[in-house]
Structure formats: structure tokens, C-alpha cells
Amino acid sequence: MPYTVPRAGAAQGSRPRWWTELPLIAVVYAAYSAGRLLARGDVSTAVDHGLAILHFEQRLNIDFESPLNDLFTNHAVIGIPADFAYASLHYVLTPAILMWLWKRRKASDYRFLRTWLLVSTVIGLIGFTLLPTCPPRLLDASHGFVDTMAQYGSYGWWGGDASAPRGLGGLTNQYAAMPSLHVGWALWCGVALWRHGRSVWAKVGAVGYPLVIALVVMGTANHYFLDAAAGVATMGLGALLAGPALRLTEALRTRLRPAQEAPVAARNAGVPANVGDRCETSARERERIPRQQGRGADRQRTDGAADDGGRGAGAGVGGRDATATDGAASTAGDGAPAAAR
Predict the structure, then answer these.
(1) 160, 169 Cβ separation under 8 angstroms
(2) Exposed (0-12), middle (13-18) or buried (19+): which is 242, by Cβ within 10 Å?
(3) Looking at the domain assignment, is residue 29 inside a domain?
(4) Is 285 a member of any domain?
(5) Which residues face 176 on adjacent strands?
(6) pLDDT range class, residue 322, cuts 50, 70, 90
(7) Domain that holds residue 133
(8) Torsion angle in degrees (nearest 10) through CA of 314, 317, 322, 327
(9) Which single residue of 20, 77, 120, 303 has CA 20 to 30 Å from 11?
(10) Residue 101 burial (10 A CB sphere; 0-12, 13-18, 19+)
């Protein structure tokens, strides 16, 4: 079997181990959740930002959340499933697709998509901190919005505090509306399904899921249209920064790696890059195999003895033949003069 010395960067394309991925994702999500709580800001400032967004949309006639909220409020058959989707898919489908990518796709594809998701989440957290925004459902009733999560709260586990379970509303920041990471994460899921899904249903889900979530966040009065657009822009920026973030982490890993790779390099020193099956084993390799040299010497001595014996036997036979011939010649020679006489 040929032996090839492994390259220093050979482990870069290996699949990340789950016991390192889970803590990483958990830490980022914990930081995201804690950041949402710490970035609550002043309520009056958040309301001012929400009204500014609404008035800007109304001037451009892009306030799509108003007719959608009327539709969801007046038709429970639409509003209740929308509330379930808002309260669950964001937290269930996204990690499920991330796990599928880790298990089924190439390591390089998983690393990029995972980094894209994490970087975009951090960008969204910065947006929540710099621009706290009151969602439509928390505006004054004179603006015409109804909180469908509160309206249909008896059908699910949520209360009147966004999608938080009843009694846990204090653990969420209800003024973290800009950008909408519900839409951003749904777009990430759609791209992952489109690029790596094999079936037709995967392609349909890749297109349909982000669109449905965009309608849901507006129809439930949790986000403005511009919040959804900002969620798409956040994912676009995250996709641009994912590559540099991967290169930065790889550079840091390479800087910390030499101390770990020194023993491996020392063990591989002096080993040929490729040793064929029929190549002669080097002297160093013979020294590693006990008694190999002794067996070779014994074999040479045995072969030499056999050759000498063969030559000796041949010489003996030849000698006897020569003696007999000489004797016969001598006899013949003595007899010839006698016959002449």
C-alpha cells in the first residue's frame, strides 16, 4: 500500500464535529436572546421609530401590513394557522435544516451556510440595538392594527407578548422589530433548500416558505413591510461577510495550530511521500524489522555454500574423467610402439 504524508491543511475540509457545533450555535443564540433583552431601549423612542416607518410606507403606498392584518383578523381560518407558523417555524424549521445540512451536505457547504446564518443573526442584533422599533400591533388602536396573537391566544401556547409562552413575556424584547429575522431566517432556509434540495417539493418549499413567512409577519401585525425588506437586506449583507469571516477564523485556527502539529511533523520527518509495493525497503526500515538483516545474511551464506558445492562436485567429476582419459591415452600410447616393434 502506498503511503502518503498528510498535508498540513488536510483537516480543513473535514466535517465539523457535533460536540463543537452545538456549543457554538448555542452561544450565539444565547447572545442573540440576551442582546434582545438588553436592547429594549426607551419605549417612546421605539414608538416614534414605528410611526416613522408606517408613515413612510403610507406615503409610498407600500403599507401592505394594513390589508393583510384585516384579512387575518376577520378570518380565523387564516389567522390561527398564521399564528402557529409565526410562533413555531422560526425556532423549529431553521435548526432542522441546519442539522440536515450538517449530516447530508459537503462540509464546505455547511460551513458557509452556518457562518452566513450566524453572521446575519449578529447583524440583526446590532439593528435591534441601534433602532428599537415598535411593531404595528403595539401601536395605538387608532392606527387600525389588531394583535392576532392576542386575539387567537386561546388556540395556542402564546399570550399577548408576541410569540412568547404565557407568563414568559418578560423574557422577550417586543420592540425588536427592525429587521425581521423571521423573514431573514426563512430566506436562509429557502436558499439552503434551493441549492441543496433534490426533490421538486424542496424547490417548492424553497420559494414558498420565505413568501409565506413574509405574509405571516405582516398579517399578524408583528412587522412592517420595511422590516421584512430589512430582513432580506440583513441576509444579503451576512452572505457577503460569511466568506471573510470563514477566512478570519481559519487564519486564527492556523495560528493556534503549529503547537499541535509539531509532534505530527516530527513523526513524518524523513518518511518518503510515496513508497511503492515493489520498492526496496530502506536501511532504516530494515532496522525496524527484527532479524531481517540476519535472515538475509543466512540466505546469502546458504546460497554461496550451494554454489561452492556444485562447483566442487563438477570439479570432482571432471577430475575423474580427466584421469581416466589420461590413463586410456597413456595405455594407448604405450601399446602403439609395442605393436610397431
Answers:
(1) yes
(2) buried
(3) no
(4) no
(5) 133
(6) very low
(7) 43-259
(8) 170
(9) 120
(10) buried
Under a CB-based contact definition with an 8 Å cutoff, are residues 138 and 211 in contact? Answer: no
Instruction: Return the closest-CA partner of residue 175 out of 140, 129, 218, 133.
Output: 133
Distance CA 304, CA 251 (A): 63
- Decide which of 157 and 167 is more confident: 157
Q: What is the rounded CA–CA span in Å between residue 186 and residue 228?
A: 11
Angle at 55 between CA 54 and CA 61, to 5 degrees: 85
Residues in the chain: 341
CA neighbor of 58 nearest in space, from 50, 270, 295: 50
Instruction: Give the chain's domain count.
Output: 1
Contact 210, 262 (CB under 8 A): no
Residue 131 lies in a domain: yes
Residue 318 resides in a domain: no
Q: Is 120 left (phi over 0), alpha (psi -120 to 50) or beta?
A: alpha
Angle at 187 between CA 185 and CA 189, to 5 degrees: 70
Alpha carbon 164 to chain centroid, angstroms:
31
Is 150 buried (19+), middle (13-18) or exposed (0-12) by CB count in 10 A? Answer: middle
Give the C-alpha separation, 90 to 164, whole Å: 12
The model carries a pTM of: 0.68
Q: What are phi and psi of 158, to 5 degrees?
A: -85, 165
* Cis ω for the linkage preceding 179 (within 30 of 0): yes
Amino acid at the residue 151: Q
Give the three-class secondary structure for 158: strand
Q: Given pLDDT bands bounded at 50, 70 and 90, which one contains residue 193?
A: very high
- Specify which residues 158 forms β-bridges with: 165
